[in-house]
From TrEMBL:
GO terms for molecular function: N-acetylmuramoyl-L-alanine amidase activity. Keywords: Hydrolase, Signal. Residues 241-396 form the MurNAc-LAA domain. InterPro entries: AMIN_dom, MurNAc-LAA_cat, N-acetylmuramoyl_amidase_3. The keyword Membrane does not apply. Transmembrane segments: none annotated. This is N-acetylmuramoyl-L-alanine amidase. It catalyses: Hydrolyzes the link between N-acetylmuramoyl residues and L-amino acid residues in certain cell-wall glycopeptides.
């Protein structure tokens, strides 16, 4: 009986021990080595501030702002805040409120209410200072005017020294005086990689021409257009996304008309990011789309480390549904215009130009130059005009729907 009781006690203790082991694997906060500091004298106005959080080990994180009231939000994967009192953080009195804790499995959140609108000027994670163990997360924020207060942004550009990313705030309906919707058009291939070829006609030249036709229609409709290339030049794949991000594009559309063995593919199709896509045709297309960088000596296969993957996956939880929504609007408008499409018009693929985590992105495969019917369409000015007009209509409807959904989420 004593033996059975001992076994029962051990069995009952296992969940507690497992929970303790799980918690010990998480990062913890060292309050003694953490602080919130403000610069300059207190004259009753918001001042530049720096949040320094010393943790026991490095963790992935993202930073963004919310309004109503203004708040700085930092999501961590993952910090065990259970043993740390937010009110005990040195400098806590500088802000109206500070709270932190676990908000969903695998993630913790810090929310700091601010005395006004701010902007993120620095976000860096480095080895802890002053002999402390672990890592130091340092966030510097500065006061800005309300018109410059960007909410729902992220820290990717600060972490990787890229241009400031496009705001992932929902797109408001266009109105008088507001900035027009900005679309990044990316004609595929170019330079030393002409893409698919039929006789003297190359995919690179065909897509550059279609991009110009689409640009004219979009501009007449009141949109702004940013081109990743305007001539037959080589632009690295990562650079194409950076151009869109630097221009604060609201939507990224890559244009292609590829080639596959006869009978394998025909009809227009729209691709969104899907790292798990594994059918043979998609794999072949991915190799064709990415070969320009491989020919230039740039192998992107190992550029995303574990931290980058986690951060980008987290950011895509907001942008990916918006990319899918645009694809559905595009299919609807293309159907309405009588444009023949692939039997599965919306598909997933791990194309490099779809990797951007902060801009809704799609790749439009206008057709396949190896298919006679598609080839005839691609060379037909009337077909190209109808296709461009349908895409422009889809962009307008998507923007209005996106803004309406965002308004509901804010409520």
């Amino acid at each position: 009986m004593r033996w059975l009781c001992a076994l029962l006690l051990v069995w009952l203790a296992l969940p507690v021990l497992a929970d303790d082991r799980a918690r010990s694997a998480l990062a913890t906060v060292d309050l003694a080595e953490s602080s919130l500091m403000a610069e300059g004298r207190d004259r009753g106005r918001p001042r530049p501030m720096e949040l320094r959080l010393t943790i026991s080990q490095p963790v992935p994180y993202r930073v963004y702002f919310l309004d109503g009231p203004p708040r700085l939000v930092v999501d961590f994967r993952e910090i065990d805040f259970s043993g740390a009192d937010a009110d005990a953080l040195p400098g806590r009195e500088l802000v109206p409120a500070l709270r932190w804790g676990r908000f969903r499995p695998g993630w913790s959140r810090l929310v700091m209410e601010l005395p006004g609108p701010y902007a993120l000027r620095l976000a860096v994670q480095s080895p802890a200072e002053g002999g402390a163990q672990g890592a130091l997360v340092k966030l510097r924020i500065e006061p800005v005017d309300q018109k410059d207060f960007a909410t729902r942004g992220n820290a990717l550009s600060a972490l990787w020294d890229l241009p400031s990313p496009a705001a992932v705030a929902p797109l408001p309906p266009r109105r008088a005086g507001a900035r027009p919707l900005r679309v990044a058009l990316d004609p595929g291939h170019g330079g030393h990689d002409p893409g698919a070829q039929v006789g003297a006609i190359s995919e690179a030249a065909l897509m550059l021409g279609f991009a110009r036709e689409l640009t004219e229609i979009l501009t007449r409709a009141g949109f702004e257009v940013v081109a990743t290339r305007k001539d037959d030049s080589f632009i690295p794949l990562e650079r194409r996304m950076t151009i869109a991000r630097a221009a604060q594009a609201d939507l990224f559309i890559s244009l292609h008309a590829d080639a596959l063995p006869a009978g394998e593919a025909a009809g227009l199709s729209i691709y969104v990011w899907n790292q798990q896509a594994d059918d043979r045709a998609t794999r072949e297309l991915a190799m064709r789309h990415d070969r320009a960088d491989l020919l230039a000596g740039l192998d992107l296969s190992g550029t995303d480390d574990q931290l980058a993957d986690v951060l980008m996956d987290l950011a895509r939880t907001e942008t990916h549904p918006r990319s899918e929504a645009f694809a559905k609007f595009a299919v609807s408008e293309l159907n309405r215009a009588g444009i023949a499409m692939h039997r599965r018009p919306v598909r997933g693929a791990a194309f490099s130009v779809l990797k951007s985590p902060d801009i809704p992105s799609v790749l439009v495969e206008l057709g396949f130059m190896t298919d006679p019917g598609d080839r005839a369409n691609l060379f037909d000015p009337d077909w190209r005009a109808r296709t461009a007009q349908a895409l422009a209509q889809a962009i307008g409807h998507w923007a209005q729907d996106d803004a309406a959904r965002a308004a509901l989420l804010r409520k």
